[in-house]
Input
Amino acid sequence: MDAHAALIQPFVEFGFMRRALVACLALSVGSGPVGVLLVLRRMSLVGDALSHAVLPGAAIGFMIAGLSLVVMSLGGFIAGLVVATLSGVVARVTPQREDASFAAFYLISLALGVLIVSTRGSNVDLMHVLFGTILAVDDASLLLVVSIATLTLFTLAVIGRGLIVECFDPGFLRAVGGPGAVVHFVFLTLVVMNLVAGFHALGTLMAVGLMMLPAAVARFWAGEVATLAAASSAIAFASGYAGLLLSYHADLPSGPAIILVAGGVYMVSVVAGPRGSLWARVMPRQHLEA
Amino acid sequence: MTVVFSLHDVTLGYDRHPAVHHLTGSFATGSLTAVVGPNGSGKSTLLKGLIGHLPPLEGRLERNGLRHSDIAYLPQQAEIDRSFPISVIDTVLLGHWRTIGMFRSVTRAQWRKAEGALRAVGLDGFGRRPIASLSAGQFQRVLFARMLLQNCPVILLDEPFTAIDAKTAADLMRVVVGWHGEGRTVVAVLHDLEQVRENFPDTLVMAREPVAWGATAEVLRAEHLFKARQMAEAWDDRAEVCRRGGG
Output
């Protein structure tokens, strides 16, 4: 099998592969920068919590309207926002910290979601919500994912400065009267939106994978917010492309294949990335004059 | 004499426990005041009250006509993530927040001003460096450069010279004295009494309760400092409700 047949032919031949690839590209463009900012804000696990939190909303949407993309996404989005808001409120008005309140609310939400799906739906439905089906992405889902990516980049361009300052020096932003709480909430909304985009393609279990793994990888390759975000998106898309091919040729489920490729890239980067990897530790480069 | 902050029987604290107890007095416009006292004596709490992050539990605190953006506040370093991937110049440029805010771009003149501020704190040529590569002293210089750009009439400093080298402390002290010369009002929490005696015309000795407040030579006397050490006991979970004041 030559390179063209292995790497390009599947996308030329099958519409579902092309749509899946475009979905991966859109997801990568949106989730890349969002993931980097989550890592910088030391909120890596909040992404995970929120991805589970969308489950009951998606499940209720499914109960109401069947396998309708719009209703399930809307339900997931609302459920995610409710969990993010409640966690944020508890963290701000009580001494409890945000990681603990997030854990509490996402667990409640997750249990509720599993309860709804298992009493009212079949196992097939549960599998669909948990694992997604990027190979069955239709035009409507594609439009949704691309819209979310566009909105994400636009919003980040608008709130970027405030977000970065809120992240590295929240005291300063408070002191100059900047809208720290607003920026934080808008950002959490972006996180939920991108997870909703991801869950249809990758399922709630792995939606967060394409957000966090590339962002964690980027840390070993880049050193500024902008380059970190670009690296994260590029790595996410490369993982998506390679994962789709892997799933096509080896007949594996696409979601886990994509995330495992990203996981492989992470392992390699930890060992051999140019910045702060194990390799850089063991083999330090010659020091400079000044 | 005009006044920047006036406090009338102000009590500040957390969970009903007072950290600053019944403080009355005022900070005159253009004054340079050191706040000293043992650990836990309410010095940082006082600054948080002055800037308005902590509303008084009791009493009145007036910021005579000051807007939020007129006050520059340097908290203790612990609140800043120094591993964050941001360059020195970008950090300093934030000092223009009042004019650039969230959305406006930085003009060439503002950029030059930022470079000038870096020169003024002895960090010429450090602009492109990531802040993670700086020492504690160098980073404190960056924060002072940012405050230079903020150009505020009132400046609050919380232990600005703790855990940094003597040379940096001396350089930055000159910046503070310069601010005083320009007629700005500065309130600084400090530990080094020698430094206070040398540079600060006014001093407030705190021990939760105000011990003494006035001209430094009058205030920094052995009996006041001894009294401050004795008064700064820890908090008592079963403390009675305070019956002093108007309540």
